[in-house]
Description:
The complex is a heterotrimer of chains A (510), B (125) and C (244). Chain A is mostly helical and 510 residues long.
Amino acid sequence: MEDLKAPSIDYAAVAPILILFGAACLGVVVEAFVPRRARHAVQLTLALLATLAGLVVVITQASTRVTTAVGALAIDGPAVFLQGAILVLALVSLLLMGERKLEPGGAFVPQAAITVGSEADERQAARAPGLTEVYPISLFAIAGMLLFVAANDLLTMFIALEVFSLPLYLLCALARRRRLLSQEAALKYFLLGSYASAFFLFGVALVYGFVGAVDLASIHTAAAESDRDPLLLYAGLALLSIGLLFKTAAVPFHVWTPDVYQGAPTPVTAFMAACTKVAAFGALLRVLYVGFNGLSWDFTPILGVVAVLTMIIGAVLAVTQTDIKRLLAYSSIANAGYLLVGVLASGERGLASTMFYLVAYGFSVLAAFAVVTLVRDADGEAGHLSRWAGLGRRSPLIAGLFTFILLAFAGIPLTSGFISKFAVFAAAMEGGQTWLVIAGVISSIVLAFPYLRVVVMMWLSDPSDATPTVSVPGVLTTAALAIGVAMTLLLGVAPSLLLDLTTGAAEFVQ
Amino acid sequence: MEGYLGSYATLGLLLLAGVLFFTAAFGANRVLRPSAPADPFGKREPYECGLDPVGGDWAQAQIRYYVYAYLYVLFAVESVFLFPWAVVFDRPGFGVTTVVEMAVFVAVLALGILYAWRKNVLRWS
Amino acid sequence: MSGGEATLFWILAPLAVIGALGMVLARNAVHSALWLVCTMLSLGVFYVAQAGPFIGMAQIIVYTGAIMMLFLFVLMLVGRDASDSLIETLRGQRVAAIVLGVGFAGIVGAGLSRALAGTGAIGLDAANENGNLQGIAQLLFTKYVFAFEVTSALLISAAVGAMILAHVERAKGEKPTQVDRMKARFAPGSYPGPKAGPGIFATSDSVATPARLPDGTFAERSISKILPVRELTSEESALKGTEK
């Protein structure tokens, strides 16, 4: 019997992942032992420090290009860049989650097990401080995402997918206000998410049947060299794509998005919109660019149709929305379509532009949801669009910032939205995917309409009694909003900083 | 009785013997017992005295039982991973590493119990 | 397939399919769960028969044991009687689901049988060379060690989540103590003595039959508020013969 050898792990390269997992476990211990009164401060500090530490380590690892843990993990350019992006965006999301000024006790329910609408529920809704378990749970999700973008075999990728999905399902159920809506959102997300995971697993099984291994390098080799009927490989890729496209919220796997974005606590929605997108597209890029790049002639038309559908349907349905969170949800679906255009552009340009888009969109969407948390009345956030009428007269600063973000979403020059769309479309043109660019431009025009409608409503309507007040944000939300808006502006004015970074990082290791 | 499946033939025989024994015992009982049950008024009521049964026979379980059931699943999964560990951990050149690997795994799961204990989930109140 | 394996397959495969169909079609949720047990046990035996004894046993221990127990717990939470509402909120949903489901199964089945026709199993002996369990251990603790360790993170976040969603944490003082109860009992306006027992002075020892006061009226306090008051008929209160 041969001797087993202990696996060699490049601990420096995987340190960010380990730091986040360690901090999450520490968070559970904190939850168990630190007195209730101090818990929130300790947990928030721990979460922020861990994310920051992870980010610092990622930056020091910027030039690492290795595969480690016997090929299970690839810490290469895209992985390091996307890990950095996830950590920065998660840091801003954690700031939003930590806010307790806007609502006494924060955005999360104090005790999720108390029956909705009972006497105890009313008592806890009024004043009890929110759950602090959200921080360790979020750290688990972030750690899972870091692993997901670095996973170099499909098995590790599947486990990472579960590790970051499960905490998200939980976080969705923990809203302080409108708890039934929140629980419904969590249940929908959980059921559909498990379904999508099952498709992914089925795909892994079929690919294994063809290749005899699950690591992406072997898949690449087998796809190029095997002379067997590639039906299994195609079927496996199709099922894998379903699992990944579900997480990216691409049509026709998008139906959960509006309900979940609306029901989840707004900081969690922001976290999902920014970080989950990065993680899901990171994994999709790796699967398509490393494992299946030999099949790009075969999958591009099909995924192209998905991209066109995603852009058009997301844009058209956004027009009909009357709730701001649902509007942003459909906008996020349409943006998944633009990102898919970048993915299908293929080559280094496609990879770089997609990564740029992910970061730019992440900052803008975080800022947008930060504004959503601010506009509130006695019942919590004022979601209905009609309530936003006249907001520009009442609080011009917040309305001005929100207008800027919406213009960025619409792709007006001097914002990051313009640069990122331009980069993605230019890459697609270069990659010969003109039809995708045409569909993208048309859908961008359609999508500008709902954004401009909100802008017009805020500035050109007179405020009525129903117009909610804008709460004075605490330090944390102010910081999050400022970072989001500043980055949206910075990446619009001086995009070369990040563009250079993405171009330098745009190469996978096998 | 050869080959891979042959080793399971004993198990199959045992199962078959179990089924036969069960059928034989109950069959014998059925054949031998006298059949003259008394059937007075009220015998088939749920209670001869006391409460009339109201509603169905189902009572909703408390959700807190779910946590116990889940903790059981957690440690069932852990034990599944312990089996392969048990066959390799004393392999030369590999021992300490596997012990550490398993220790990390078990320690993380133990956090769950720690958390449950501190949150009074395990105390019946 | 050898003769024994083929026999096993043809006995258990129909059972597995019947179990799966029964699980979908059964009206009662508990019956559904038991059908599922049937399918899972059959699958466990299949794994064993395909030279994967460890995964077969894990299937039986973890799935038919632990996971099915979890299923039954959830069913008891929701209610055994809560049969499905048959009203469709989306019109034509069920038909569409059946058509799409059967279509998908057809495509996958046809595709797989086409792709795998004439393909023999390879690599089984190599994988089980040092024993099945040893082979799994070798992969688990070297190549997939990261995935293995991360599984613990998955389990712990699920555990914390289950406790958040299912456990109500009570602060001190929220639950009345013995002293509180005592004070409430002797507070003005409440009667501190024991309540009259039900059935006293009556012809029945039923807890649903109220006690009678000296003036012959019923003592309403003697029975629980949630019970309907019952007076026994003379037939019911007569002595019952236990012999035939």
